[in-house]
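Record format v2
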Amino acid sequence: MLRIENISKTFNAGTINEKQALKNVNLYINDGDYITVIGGNGAGKSTLLNIISGVHTIDEGELILDGIKLTKMPEFKRAQYFGRVFQDPLMGTASSMEIEENLALAYRRGKFRGLSWAITQSERRLYQTQLSRLDLGLENRMTTKVGLLSGGQRQALTLLMATLVKPKMLLLDEHTAALDPKTAKKVQDLTQELTQENNITTLMITHNMKDAIKYGNRLIMMHDGKIIYEASGEEKKSLRVEDLLKKFEQNAGSELVNDRMLLA
Amino acid sequence: MISFLQSILGGANQGLLWALLALGVFITYRILDFADLTAEGSFTLGGATAVTLIVAGVEPVLSTLIAFLIGTIAGLCTGVLHTKLKIPPILAGILTMIALYSVNNRVMEGAYKGISRINTVITYFENLMGNSKMLANTMIGLLVVGIVIALIYWFFGTEKGSAIRATGNNEKMCRALGINTDNTKILTLMISNGLIALSGAMVAQQQGYADISMGIGAIVVGLASVIIGEAFMSQKFPFWLKLCFIALGSVIYRIIITIVISIDIFESSDMKLLTAVIVIIALALPKLKTAVIGNNSKKRKQQEAVLAEGEDGNAEN
């Protein structure tokens, strides 16, 4: 489905801050895959996601989705294929717009926006049913400004917005990292529900190794701009956190230094 | 006294025509969150275009509409400079503004062009109203502002308008949802500068001339009107009422200026200084407010602390 071929990305090339974020990364994502991505700070996890969604341009390599070449396509055009949720709950929604207005914006992802009304009555009914699934009472607050919602509520809403029109792929960038454990669990459960129900191909970066093992059918570990370990199927199912730490030491030649990951 | 009231009414009438400028500034500054200095040039551009066309014998209403369209081109320039050439908003606006200074001189073939005793949009209404200049001015001001507010209200309720509001709110999200933020920004700047040029066209026809300096300080006048309007509105107001209050802000601003200038010690050239002072006061108001309220809450905390101590004391007893 999505072919990542030999992709490299360097930031601030030619300056003292030069950082090679991705080094000849290859990855083939199958239709229906749910891949979890782990790795330390600066490993290139977010860069990989941003390269796919088009936030960053690609220095070298090709990105091909179902035969469509995405390599040079601008971010807003690629949006028709990808649903995205960011780490920062403020990033995924427009705070001074109403809940239903945000959903209406998401409902038109990949469609032409013309001069017809931004939101119709029949859409409102759809949004109401969808919101009631979140179990946060948002279905009765459709005209509330999103800025008044909590981080967890906003993240749940962003997740709903990302899947309102079924994307070819869902890109999750540590989308539960900024939430308290209870809310994080709720948002993660919702993620499972939405992705399984529509069989959405998913790429999820997580700092939580238990989650990385528990969810999805494939796991990749990144370090220093490269994929250093990959597990799928039975191998992935039988993994334990200690195994991952050991794999990291073996493949990266150093200890996994990320307090957040160890504590999670 | 009567002449004073008349000058107030005259100021209010002017305010209605300048309200179009305020609405244009509101669209970029508040909705798109883009401080667009093109206004200074596009206001004059509108006046120069309308006056030149009318003098050349073009029908006044048509001339005014063309002035609007020419204004949108000014916005297009700033938009392209910012989005495609990645020039920061303020600099992009300044560049277009300074370029327009020369353009305006070319359009008028000089620094001044008069249209006294020639038919304008305003004189249409004067004839309609039985030659009452004051009433005609009020009617046309209300009519044009009413139409523009209705159009803005409609537009920002559409899919495109909604995308623009979202762009002003969260660009990153917009791109993730497939909105071409370059295009929404350019479109907004075009609409805004079209309105500002329309305002210049109306003002030039009302005063009977266009001159190269008529746009100086336009951005500050627009901001002053927006800020005054917002001081009177509640956040709970529906969008159309907010737009009405922005227009009202422009009228109030003109009335304030008229009153101040009628005081003997001021000359009309002091107006820009007064405008700057009004905007500074209005911008500083929230800061001053929190300073005052902050003191109050400190006092309250002290009182609470005293009460709490008292209760503790009682408990011990």
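Confidence is low (pLDDT under 50) at residues 307-317 of chain B.
Residues 2-214 of chain B form one domain.
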